């Protein structure tokens, strides 16, 4: 089981049990947050399903396992948008629909993975639905999505459903520790609870970058103009990601004011909770979200000027608790 990320094991086990009991659905829908490592789960499911030893995990030695490792198994197909940001087209789905009706080239399962399934346009989704309504023998579909509400309800209803949820902080910290990475609890928080993002965050010196921004933020909201300019410069280095870090600090501070205490709270959040009234923190959080929306929708905006205005709003009409 070492090939699977530990937070995916509880999702894998019921699917594995159905496979071993020969009760596997013709279509499985995996709901998973982005950057959850779901590709690791899909890969493990695919290698297990295609393995001809028919064990409860891929043997790694049979001909099919060799073909999977080489990326050349004739009965394994992955459907994704042909270009980043584009839809999965009806022609792509019609192609795999034909494959679904053909015989296996290696006398085993045929497996078709659609990831992300919510990228199918309306025509493609309707074309897939026809195949799911009359599934072919020994042909399995795995659909992966982070946005299940974008799928046709009729497609969702025809799938066995698996859900990947955010793992506990303790599990992720232990997983990182096994790899020789000692991370503070707030690292996962800053990475939107994504273990893989947290690992990259730690390996790329994220703690040091965050603490420098946090230090300048604390001074900036106290009215230090040079700290404002320094903080803006640091934020601009990775604008949207660093704005998300600031958002975490502000929301943590608001939670503290409501009596919530969590180990993963950012270090500066307690200081801001003591310095500013809840309404000020709430207003600045809302303004930050509006700023992020502006910057994501309109290219060419002067982010430095917008951030300076945001800081100036923070230090005006300050109300202490």
Automatic annotation (TrEMBL):
This is DNA polymerase III subunit delta'. Coiled coil: none annotated. One of its GO terms (molecular function) is 3'-5' exonuclease activity. One of its GO terms (biological process) is DNA-templated DNA replication. The gene is holB. Pfam families: DNA_pol3_delta2 (PF13177), DNApol3-delta_C (PF09115). SUPFAM superfamilies: P-loop containing nucleoside triphosphate hydrolases, post-AAA+ oligomerization domain-like. It catalyses: DNA(n) + a 2'-deoxyribonucleoside 5'-triphosphate = DNA(n+1) + diphosphate. Residues 208-314 form the DNA polymerase III delta subunit C-terminal domain. Keywords: DNA replication, DNA-directed DNA polymerase, Nucleotidyltransferase, Transferase. Its EC number is 2.7.7.7. Transmembrane segments: none annotated.
